[in-house]
From TrEMBL:
Residues 1-159 form the Thioredoxin-like fold domain. Coiled coil: none annotated. It comes from the Bacteria. Signal peptide: none annotated. PANTHER family: GLUTATHIONE S-TRANSFERASE KAPPA (PTHR13887), THIOREDOXIN-LIKE REDUCTASE RV2466C (PTHR13887:SF56). Gene3D superfamilies: Glutaredoxin (3.40.30.10). This is DsbA family protein. It comes from Caulobacter segnis. Belongs to the thioredoxin family. DsbA subfamily.
Amino acid sequence: MGSPKAPVQLVVYASASCPHCAHWWTTELPQVRKTFIDTGKVRLVFREFLTPPEAFAAAGFILSRRIPGKYFEVLTTVFQKQADIYRTEQLYEGLAAIGKQYGLTDEQFKATMSDAAALKAVNERNAKAIDDGVESTPTFYVNGAPIVGDIGFAALSKAFATAAKG
């Protein structure tokens, strides 16, 4: 997300099933995006990571990839609806409703959820994250340096400024 030529790169490892990730994505990212990403100062590189319930996280990522050109839009919807989906305990049905919102028929959603190649790809991306040393979500790196602790807008702004200076 953002310009490949941006001087600062924010790498975010997150899980579609992680409430902390959903909170950051829906509360902090909009301001980060408006101030830094959309202005060409920062490029966000998103990396998928599976946390419990892993099947829900994987399904959320597979669904997000299924809608052409709308990965981040669908993922945002998953994060926005995550708490309600958990409250109802209807994980599959909650994702099916999101699929329907983006134009998938019931048959298309079922095919998406049973796509063995897509599941293998998610698991491979997760294994790569584990190999990279990621242990929890959300995990952040700014120009390769880990951000530990506060990941709010002010802390990220400071990290971006430091990274931009070299």
